[in-house]
Amino acid sequence: MSYSDIEKISAMAAKKKNIAEKNPKNYLFRSIVAGFYIIVATILSYTMGAILNPKYPELAKIMVAACFATAIVLIYMLQAELFTGNNLVMAMGVYDKKTNWLDALRVWGFNYIGNFIGCFILAFILVYCGSNKEILNDYFTPLIDKKLHIPAMEMFLRGILCNFMVCITVVIGVKVKEEISKIVLMFLVITAFVIGGFEHSVANMGIFSIGFFQQGALPAALVAKSMFFVTLGNIVGGAIVLGLPLKLMSVKE
Known about the structure:
Shape: globular
Number of strands: 0
Helix content: over 70%
Mean pLDDT: 95
Oligomer: single chain
Radius of gyration: 18 Å
Order of helices and strands: HHHHHHHHHHH
Number of helices: 11
Strand content: under 5%
């Protein structure tokens, strides 16, 4: 990792900070649109999983993982703002002294709220449009129950591993020049985190929102516990476990 790559990422952090400060409504909508893209990928991947799971559960798991990679490709190519990817970007800005932790928290706050709004809106439309209603109900109910009953430490550690991988795609976006190569590498990395069973806070916003509209109120304490520990793990995975070593290993050309 060269220092010029660190400079590119920290310059991204400074740009995000400026937009969030000077045009917060614009930045919030960029985050909302990222939530939309997460639900688009969720529709593709989990509908595929619901169709295949009764007869081919192993294939269903592979297809869910492969199809969910659509989310990161859409977010990267169409320039939306995702909380988890910005865990690395804003932390790198702090390490490179282009931003500070208050700037990072402001950007993360816009991302988190906007991502949730986007997920919630499209989840509502998905459920109430009635498409694939029965197979999605049957698929999401045990999926959500399983997620809500993961032990807290496992949630935290799965969150770390998830965003360690997700933030690798940010580095791919900076390091790799050719667009097809970027897409292929991003696809492989995101497939790896999903098939590994790791926990992504924004993806869970979408899954829990769909469950809320399908089933009615979910257990609030369990949802809050899951979101807290997974979000904390995502921050640690992106900002510290990946971000800090990348800064420390960088050298000037």
